[in-house]
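Quarterly update from the structural biology core.
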Amino acid sequence: MNAARTMMIWTGGIALIIAAALNLLAVIGRHTGLPLKGAIELVQVVVLIGGSLALVAATLGRNHARVHLILDRLTGGNRDVAEWICTLLSILFYLMLLGGSCWLAVDLWGSQEVSELVGVPWWAMRAFLNLTLVVIIALLVRQLVEGRRP
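Predicted structure, tokenized:
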């Protein structure tokens, strides 16, 4: 599992470097009269990939944002209950994101859902996001069942 997490971190990091490079080329292109058409669309794709992989890696490492001001002061059973509630609320949050994304997918099912300039298939990006959300929810459910073990 550690190798998969490392691979996701590297892949996501490379995606974000690509996003920065695309933005740099787009800015240079605008100032030199050679604009990079579709740069925003391509940046959206690589940021989606990088961000999604970062969420999965954070879930695997149990590194999601938490209210440490409260959790660090709790001990024993109280901390376990607070961690359980926090994980349960995280599951609920990701379920709502998945539900909204699936709703959009159903609503736009018959439409021509591609970007305007370079033809990025948004349905594929939404499918990638939905798969990522399912993986995150499954990991969180597993963590909820296993308890507060790092």
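The mean pLDDT is 87.
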